[in-house]
Amino acid sequence: MVNERRLIDRPMVATAAGLKELVAELRAAGRFAVDTEFSGERTYVPRLCLVQVATTEFIALIDTLAIHDLTDFWDLVTDPAVEKVVHAAREDLRIAYFGAGRKVARNVFDTQIAAALVGLSQYPLSYARLVEALQGVRLAKTETRSEWDRRPLTVDQISYARDDVRYLLPMTDRLKNLMERLGRSEWIHQEMERFADPRTFEADPDEAYLRLRIPRGGLTARATAMLRDLTAWRERYAADSNVPTRTVLKDETLMDIVQRSPKRITDLTRIRSFPVGEEGTLGHSVLQVLEKVRALTTEELPDPLTALEDETPAQKALIDLVNAIGAAICLRQNIAPELAVTRTSVAELVRGSNRSPLKSGWRYEALGKQLVEFVEGRATLQALVAGGEVIPAFHTNEPADS
Question: Residues near 137 by Cβ (< 8 Å), separated by ≥ 6?
Fold first, then answer.
């Protein structure tokens, strides 16, 4: 176990005056660790139940069910002059984004992403496993599915909540030192830039259909438009009603509707996955969306969706090969492949799309440049298998004589 300075466990902050005093201390510290506990099963934006913060001196818990106005705290989170250290930051920062009136957090350091950039196991690495790897401490996991919206909190809940921020700052110091030695400090800054983009937390409803995890192959342009507009309607309906999108209509139901293209309420009753009893409520809106799509001209329709099953055998083989090569390059450089390269990013690269993350930033520097040259035929790959490890080597092809 790594010896660290023992932090003072402060009493729960449950008043507006106490929060204002705590925020002043955090601002003066210049940086602090933060984590949240929330209930997200029944709402579009998770209900914030508890906030944990830590400096190098103390740990404090904020009872967000007792304090109704968190403006002072959200102003601190969005202040670029103060560093916020978080593990697996996206959901915590999404709550902050909506809490702060759709303002993004600034100056964030995510220890989960930093660990991936220095090769600490796979990505995503849990907080407990990172603490064990860097601090030599094994944390209890008894409260991972706790009901944080109940009061009073138990002794075990409070202990668990405090431990969730107890080690973040010392681990951050170690991770920053590792990245500095590897010359990767700029890489983490690039990764943190996405947290300064509102689209990370509030995606465009009109692009939500692109994130559906269901088979989408074989859709015509008009069917693609139906899926796009139905998914956008569902996203807006869920946000306005503050309910999870999946409780409005399931992804599979959206596809069933598109494939059957109903025109009357009675048609909806024949769709087995459509929720019983909702034909007269959701049904009217669904039919209106479909009617608008039917009225679109051919020029107004989007390109048909291309799913993985639409790949030719040759494309699939090349994408799988390049994906494997990319993973091997990452492992040789102590980068978690799961963060650096995905099959989707490789597929975009193979198809020549400039949207592939492998064509810009640190990913291009670390492996993208080599993969682009290989795909374009400007480099030859040689791979050696040694000790169960793939060692890739690229050689630039000589231009043919004119």
Answer: 1, 2, 131, 167
For residue 223, CA distances in Å to 17, 206, 272 come to: 56, 15, 19
Angle, helices 127-135 vs 168-182, to 10°: value is: 70
Within-domain flag for 2: no
> Is 368 within a domain?
yes
What is the domain range of residue 257?
Answer: 205-300
φ, ψ (nearest 5 deg) of residue 62: -110, 120
Placement of tokens 């983009």 in the chain: 197
List per-block mean pLDDT (blocks of 10 residues) for the chain, which spans 402 residues: 77 98 98 95 91 98 97 98 98 96 97 96 92 94 81 95 97 98 97 95 92 82 96 96 94 95 95 92 96 97 73 91 96 96 94 93 97 94 84 81 51
Mention every residue, 6+ apart, whose C-beta is less than 8 A from residue 285: 233, 237
Q: Quick one: which of 374, 396, 391 has its CA closest to 327?
A: 391
Same-domain pairing of 229 and 343: no
Same domain, 290 and 315: no
Residues in the chain: 402
User: Is 57 in the same domain as 162?
Assistant: yes
Instruction: Report yes or no on 401 lying in a domain.
Output: no
Residues 65 and 44 in one domain: yes
pTM to 2 decimal places: 0.90
Q: What is the CATH number of the domain that holds 228?
A: 1.10.150.80
- What DSSP string runs through 32-53? EEEEEEEE-SS-SSPEEEEEEE
Contact 169, 31 (CB under 8 A): yes
123-150 residues labelled b (16+ CB within 10 A) or e (exposed): bbbebbbbbeebbeeebeeebeebebee
Q: Report if residue 227 sits inside a domain.
A: yes
| Number of structural domains the chain divides into | 3
